[in-house]
Amino acid sequence: MQAEKELSEYHQQENQVLTIGVFDGVHLGHKYLLSRLKEIAKEHSAESGVITFKRHPIEIINPKAVFPYIISLDEKISLLRSEGVDNVIALTFDNELASLGASDFVDLLRHFLKIRGLVIGSDFALGRNREGNLESLIQLGEKRGFFVTVIPPLKLDGEIVSSTAIRKALADGDIAKVVKLTGRSYSLKGRVTSGTGLGRKIGYPTANLTIESGWAIPADGVYATFTHINGDVHQSMTSIGLRPTVGGKNRTVETYILDYKGNLYDKEVSIDIVDRLRDEKKFADIDELKVQISKDIKQGIEILSSRNYLIHQNNLR
To answer: Which CATH superfamily is domain 2-159 in?
Structure first.
């Protein structure tokens, strides 16, 4: 079993208080759980540990399910470590691991990690068919010699902070809500590929970003963004959508970088999406589009100039 091989690399001699989850997005709810994990581990003179998965279990359990990721695995591990936990363990969730019952899964962890306790959310379950619910885990802990502590979910304005809520906010283009739930701007990473060249022809050359499939992309529209290139940060405007004014048929992510003149072709860049300016719109002609682009840039500069602090929150790529 691949997970067993991976756990053997993290063999720990110290007592561990663990939490287990996907942690996609490492949002404020996750950070609250991690802060309680560290406190509880300290109370028990143990190390704090996070077990996460390289892929979301739903992709194995239901291969037809569409699951858009909020952050990459590397970003997730970096963000988890930045919260100050002692150990971060990323496991491969495959069919073998999915077939394990709750007690077998716990015994697998106990074999390699000295589990002193589990800190979990109120909706947590593990094992085949999610049989390891709260009640059964508490009973299992009594038999296996570890405690189970349940942490209630974090709420903001009456709503539970969750990865699902973040994905919905992205789908709605509600970037302000994404920032509120994660505590940082939302980032996309892609490779610059050749486009139609229209932007250059009308005086606004854009970098056409190819985003790998499987990532959560905000709703179509125009956004104020920061673009990271070789460690430097540039103000930019990013358009996501079909480009209806010129009869586009494929969804694109195009970024106009205000103060950059170099060749970005085939380079990998990342953008921090700070705020949404407007919906995508079909204009009567190119001249009308150019007038709107000029307005977008003016509005975007005002927003970005007031939010430069956000660029310091995305250095964990």
So the answer is: HUPs (3.40.50.620)
